[in-house]
């Protein structure tokens, strides 16, 4: 079942039963996300947008060491030998409330050391798309947690990307982060970032995608506004600008924690963030 929201020239289609993934996001009929084809699985396709929790991006070897035990999760990318993107995208969300332009959804899940409750708010208005996510430890013991949003933005030819950061993580042959190097972020055209798959730390929470027809601006606050994953596959007209709360595989590589550790949440404790997306047409 799909959930459609529309307001002020904005139109969004979501799949609550498939991880509350976005199947489409449009402004004045223009695709801002690569649209998910009818019947396609948002867990396997490169389209729309999905949620990452209770961890984000890569988990080295599918191993999550915590409290004297190592919890094993399925390897989702055998070529790398890693588990990616958390657990929530494979689980349904319940629609708690919906109006023509806004909705609130909730999810509860368990896996390994994780027991979580999450609440998601999605609203469209003349100001654009606003997302809010709250994640709570529903277990009876402290647990590290994290979250992120993974949009597959449509990327027409001739785009530029701009955002500020302090560090960038090189990666090894398994795409896992190595100690970071100083970086001002990105400010340039495709020659600077096409083919990139890297995490940036010290992000100021604002990223701009300048398209030939206008500028898409993403603003993140709260637990989202420090780290940004950038994925720009050279063979596809897509660009992922992913606000995330922690460095990939940081639970496996604690030396990287100063640039974005997972939050250790006590029972009943939570973390939260907001994202705004707007689009300004070129006049």
From TrEMBL:
InterPro entries according to UniProt: Aldose_1/G6P_1-epimerase, Gal_mutarotase_sf_dom, GH-type_carb-bd
Annotated GO biological process: carbohydrate metabolic process
GO molecular function, one term: carbohydrate binding
Name assigned to this protein: Aldose 1-epimerase
Protein's organism: Pseudoroseomonas cervicalis ATCC 49957
């Amino acid at each position: 079942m799909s959930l459609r929201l529309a307001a002020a020239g904005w139109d969004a289609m979501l799949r609550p039963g498939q991880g509350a993934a976005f199947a489409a996001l449009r402004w004045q009929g223009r695709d801002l996300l690569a649209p998910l084809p009818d019947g396609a699985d948002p867990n396997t396709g490169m389209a729309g947008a999905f949620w990452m929790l209770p961890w984000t991006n890569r988990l080295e070897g599918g191993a999550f060491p915590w409290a004297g035990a190592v919890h094993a999760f399925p390897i989702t990318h055998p070529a790398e030998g890693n588990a990616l993107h958390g657990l929530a995208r494979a689980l349904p969300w319940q629609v708690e409330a919906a109006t023509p332009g806004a909705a609130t959804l909730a999810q509860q899940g368990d896996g390994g050391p994780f027991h979580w409750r999450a609440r998601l708010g999605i609203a469209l208005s003349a100001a654009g798309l606003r997302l809010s996510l709250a994640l709570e430890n529903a277990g009876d013991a402290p647990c590290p947690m994290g979250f992120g949003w993974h949009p597959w933005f449509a990327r027409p030819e001739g785009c530029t990307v701009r955002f500020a950061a302090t560090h960038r993580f090189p990666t090894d042959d398994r795409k896992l982060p190595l100690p970071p190097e100083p970086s001002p972020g990105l400010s340039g055209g495709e020659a600077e970032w096409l083919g990139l798959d890297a995490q940036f730390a010290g992000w100021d929470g604002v990223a701009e995608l300048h398209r030939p027809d206008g500028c898409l601006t993403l603003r993140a606050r709260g637990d989202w506004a420090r780290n940004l994953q950038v994925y720009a596959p050279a063979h596809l007209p897509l660009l992922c600008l992913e606000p995330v709360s922690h460095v990939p595989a940081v639970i496996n590589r604690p030396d990287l924690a100063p640039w974005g550790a997972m939050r250790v949440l006590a029972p009943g404790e939570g973390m939260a963030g907001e994202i705004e997306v707007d689009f300004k047409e070129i006049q």
